[in-house]
Write a structure and sequence with these properties.
By secondary structure, the chain is α+β, with helices and mostly antiparallel strands. It has helices at residues 3-23, 86-97, 141-147, 177-181; strands at 48-53, 61-64, 70-73, 76-80, 106-112, 121-125, 131-133, 161-166, 169-174, 197-200. GO terms for molecular function: polysaccharide transmembrane transporter activity.
């Protein structure tokens, strides 16, 4: 074989090796042991709220939270709702209605759940249906993968990683999606938290 051809093949092999190394950045493996901090559900744009004003059915109604995070009901215009608990919003509505009613009593029931964008689980890359998912209590990696329809044929599942905000600092952790989905290794089913981003890279080969 011509020496120049051999050199070209060697150079090409080195390039592929370096690309593979660059795509295999090592992050700590995310543990199945995670402490979920108790957290009240926060209202987000797209949620549906059933607002009940005691003894005042004419101003009780179901309303959506607008994209700007506000709601509008009779006697209550453009009230911020996003980022609040249902109890906090109920007290805010009572305060506004007290200008028109004597000692109003309000209950807010959330009937459609989306949640704030900052608390959604985002899945990007080689998932069958990449999307943002509402967080649910005790949500796990398996729950996320069921929701997005699993991996594509081109996914490098065991090189996937979760980007997570830990004490105000962004950290990355490796997860084993292929072991979980294709091999049924339940030890790879780790908890996910509010605001996690799951990145699923494409396989080189």
């Amino acid at each position: 074989m011509n020496i120049s051809i051999k050199a070209w093949i060697v150079s090409l092999s080195v390039i592929f090796y370096l690309l593979a190394l660059g795509g295999c950045t090592t992050y700590p493996l995310l543990s199945t042991q995670g402490e979920q901090v108790p957290h009240d559900y926060l209202i987000g744009p797209g949620d549906t709220l059933n607002i009940i004003v005691w003894r005042n059915p004419e101003i009780s109604m179901s309303v959506p939270v607008r994209p700007d995070g506000k709601i509008t009901t009779p006697l209550v215009e453009d009230l911020p709702a996003s980022g609040k608990t249902s109890t906090e919003l109920a007290r805010n509505i009572e305060e506004t209605l007290s200008k028109y009613l004597q000692q109003p009593v309000v209950t807010v029931v959330i009937t459609g759940f989306v949640g704030p964008f900052s608390e959604q689980i985002r899945v990007i890359g080689e998932a069958a249906q990449p999307q943002a998912l509402p967080y649910r209590e005790n949500m796990s990696l398996m729950d996320v993968m069921i929701a997005v329809g699993g991996l594509t044929d081109f996914a490098a599942g065991n090189r996937a990683r979760i980007i997570r905000n830990v004490d105000g600092e962004q950290q990355q952790f490796r997860v084993r999606l292929e072991d979980l989905i294709r091999d049924g290794d339940i030890s790879a089913n780790v908890p996910v938290y509010q605001g996690d981003v799951l990145v699923i890279p494409e396989s080189f080969f």
